[in-house]
Amino acid sequence: MRCPFCQDTENKVIDSRESHEGSVIRRRRECLQCKRRFTTYERVEELYPLIVKKDGRREAFDREKIVNGLKKACEKRPVSADQLEQTVGAIERLLQGMGEKEVPSNVIGEEVMRRLQALDEVAYVRFASVYRSFRDIAEFMNELKELADQSKEGRPKPLPGKGGQPS
User: Which intervals hold the zinc fingers (unnamed) (predicted)?
Assistant: First the structure.
């Protein structure tokens, strides 16, 4: 493991602990060269389905794309790194549990939105505005109005094509 600060390969593990229901091992390390500390995560390499994009292309599942999208949506919001990690982990488990060889990208996008809506409504609106590519301000305002109505009623918005409320 290379030190992210000085790139030296010699370091020692200071602390190890399981996290995320035992599926990840978090290790605190100290570089023996520059003495700075950093954290690494060790996880089992899973086999994920291929993601089928809107244009028909297929590409390997990339966890970092989900992480980056969530980070952008949650920027300057009261959402912890642990909450983001749990969200991504839940989406990964969902994909693996489906047992499919290929999954349309919109399944992932809708799941991210469903989980973001429960996590932080502002982050949800940010993500939805990019993901849904609203054509004009009227579409965007309609989405905000629906979200506000749901908040008043205390119920989550059903996802399009999912036949009801999210679980």
Answer: 3-34
Whole-structure pTM over 0.90, yes or no? no
Is residue 3 within 8 A of residue 31, CB to CB? The reply is yes
CA torsion angle 25 26 31 35 (round to 10): -150
What is the mean pLDDT for each group of 10 consecutive residues in the chain (167 residues)?
95 90 88 96 82 94 94 94 92 90 93 92 87 77 80 56 40
Task: Please give the DSSP secondary-structure letter assigned to residue 55.
Answer: T
Under 8 Å between Cβ of 58 and 75: no
Backbone Cα Rg of the chain: 19
Cα–Cα distance, 54 to 35 (Å, whole number): 47
Residue 116 CB partners (closer than 8 Å, separation 6+): 70, 73, 74, 87, 123, 124, 127
Q: Residue 154's Cα: distance from chain center in Å?
A: 24
Q: Which residue has the tokens 């602990």?
A: 17
d(CA 74, CA 88): 13
The DSSP secondary structure of 45-59, one letter per residue, reads PPP-PEEE-TTS-EE
| Coil, helix or strand at residue 134 | coil
- Region of residue 105 (phi > 0: left; psi between -120 and 50: alpha; otherwise: beta): alpha
